[in-house]
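dumping this here so i dont lose it
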């Protein structure tokens, strides 16, 4: 089933303006509720204000936790880099050591290593 272009355009607009749409809907519910049942209007208004307060508080806490996480990831990356450099240096030292070993000519024969005639 194909979606008409006008309907698709309306859905795109609603996605872009979601906060304004939800705020308008809540305001409409509060106004209708206040006229019809004042307690319902007060309940919805309180829920909106409380929800916004919780969202802002949670956002600050989430931002702090994300910055701590980013800092830990940076430290972890720095430590991994340091360990990799140390391992590379150890490998290079070992290879230099084996290259520096003196080459002994085959003047001394070991027992059991006699060359066949």
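and the seq i came up w/
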């Amino acid at each position: 089933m194909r979606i008409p272009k006008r309907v698709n355009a309306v859905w795109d607009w609603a996605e872009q303006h979601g906060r304004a749409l939800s705020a308008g809907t809540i305001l409409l519910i509060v106004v209708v509720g206040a006229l019809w049942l004042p307690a319902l209007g007060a309940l919805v208004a309180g829920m909106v204000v409380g929800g916004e307060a919780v969202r802002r508080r949670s956002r600050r806490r989430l931002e702090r936790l994300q910055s701590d996480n980013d800092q830990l990831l940076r430290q972890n990356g720095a430590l991994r880099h340091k360990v990799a450099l140390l391992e590379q240096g150890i490998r290079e030292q070992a290879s230099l050591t084996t290259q520096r070993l003196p080459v002994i000519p085959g003047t001394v024969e070991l027992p059991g290593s006699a060359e066949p005639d």
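The radius of gyration is 37 Å.
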